[in-house]
Records
---
Amino acid sequence: MAPIARRIVEAGPITVAEFMRLALSEPGTGYYATRDPLGAKGDFVTAPEISQMFGEMLGLWCVDFWERLGGPASFLLVELGPGRGTLMADALRAARVRPEFRRALRLHLVEISRPLRAAQAEALASFDPVWHDDLSTLPAGPTILLANEFLDALPVHQFQMTEAGWRERGVAADGEALAWTLLPPGESLALLRPEHQTAKPGDIAEVSPAVRAIGATLGARLARDAGAALFIDYGPARSGLGESLQALRGHRAADPLRDAGEADLTTHVDFAAVAAAGRDAGVKVFGPVEQGAFLRILGIEQRAAMLAAKAAPPDRAAIAAALHRLIAPSQMGSLFKVLALASPDTTELAGFA
Ligand code: SAH
């Protein structure tokens, strides 16, 4: 029996949030804790793995923001969940336009996966990164933070409206297999918010204290130290009802219960919750805006044209295809959103028209 199933058989039903935590990040059993899931041979592909242009645009965004900060001689460049280090390597190559930026940055990476830390160490060796398990050990100071497809992997609680009111969903053992269940009513129902009030029996609500905590922690930091945090992920611009938990294995939809620990689990990110946590902490919120619009404002089409002009004809087609995938509304352009939290005196940020 898989370790997660054994644990549930022995200890009884758990919440969907605890299930996600065990299946994704628990040392020993978690999907991310134990492997490199990215790329053609892995389970899914992310924007930086589609094209170097994605990381390059974010690198220019960081340089632009650093200049808005007055070009501090020392600052933290932080990435949450850096994957293979591809985004940051592309960003730092693009940042060569400002050697002072490269000299001022101290690179900090928040990553739980040992295999991915090894890949990051290789991709970013010349920047001498410092790794962290979470945000709590980051030193103070001016900060520019990037997080692409990080929030979508954090645990969510799921609630289902029944004829008798809200109940939290959980995962229980059914013989040797796992099955969805409804847990006895408990304190967790307090996580539900006003926008869930319209629910009818059968409706599902997802709430992620972990996502909100990231917004609150960074909000508190940016209220104190100058800086900005840029999140790119997929999800709706407004919070609402609906289930979005999905499993991906080998680029195909998988069964979250049967493939626990062997498949990627993600949910749509509740950007409004990140924004609310930031506002509560007193920082400015920019967006969410659509990824396609954001990248276009930063000049991704001009960059694609430059790369195409230098490329051989077959590579030109690949550059055009990658650009389409990143910005077309039918691809990643609309579903993916960009949200920034920035210190209170920030008046403008590149990319947010
Ligand atoms: N940003 C990369 C990788 C996205 S996959 C890209 O765009 O390609 C999610 C990343 O977050 C992986 O690096 C994964 O190991 C990391 N991760 C997932 N859950 C985490 C957690 N709770 N704490 C820190 N890192 C986590």
---
Amino acid sequence: MEIDTGLVEVLQHARHVAVLTGAGVSAESGIPTFRDAQTGMWARFSPEDLASPEAFRRNPQLVWEWYAWRRELVAHAVPNPGHLALAELERHVPRITLITQNVDGLHQRAGSSAPIELHGNIGRVTCSVEGTVVDRWAASADDLPPRCPRCGAYLRPDVVWFGELLPAAALAAAWEAAQSCDLFLSVGTSGLVEPAASLPRLALQAGATVAVINLDVTTAARPPLYTINAPSGVLLPALLRAAWPG
Ligand code: OAD
């Protein structure tokens, strides 16, 4: 795969690379994205019905079961070459900040050391009232969602829902990385959900080179902005090999 030599050179010399990932990075692991027309999850389900505090109040069982289904999907998925390339990048660049909107934990399973999870992690469960992480609870098929063993409130997935605030420390770290990196890669995200969507622009304003990689980039671009229409599982390994052959 042909990759712009200007971008390859920036990567080779970068001291700090920030990467923002979205659902597209996990698409090649078989996890549906949110907005892709045929396969996206929001084509079949509506966010208002499933991923909001109101939805959980209205129908906690439906929301719990939808996340249980997604947790199952994720448990059977494996990291793809895109996840693996991002983990490998840590061996080549002095500082990598990996920021993800994904809740699937596949970056960690691929070997990335400390991804910043802006939208939480589907593998964790919290008490919907106390907000504390809960590791064990009594399972009952008749009473879903399960209850917090301490206070009896419903348990919920530890993810950020529409209308909820992002974890402040994660957001601050992402902001700092966007403003201090030499190269910012936006990979597999439609850039429609704030505040993550602002990060590439912030990086560009702060003087970084920015590459947007997904399957629907339409904007014409010139350095320091690059736009690449390619699957991340192909593009990211090719970018690494171009920068560090052999
Ligand atoms: P989207 O579903 O909005 O966008 C997926 C992006 O990935 C699109 O730009 C696709 O072109 C691209 N894409 C698909 N397959 C790809 C591949 N193999 N390689 C590279 N790119 C590919 O997903 P996100 O941008 O992650 O939030 O969505 C952001 C947030 O909206 C999610 O975190 C979630 C959702 O609602 C919450 O649930 C709070």
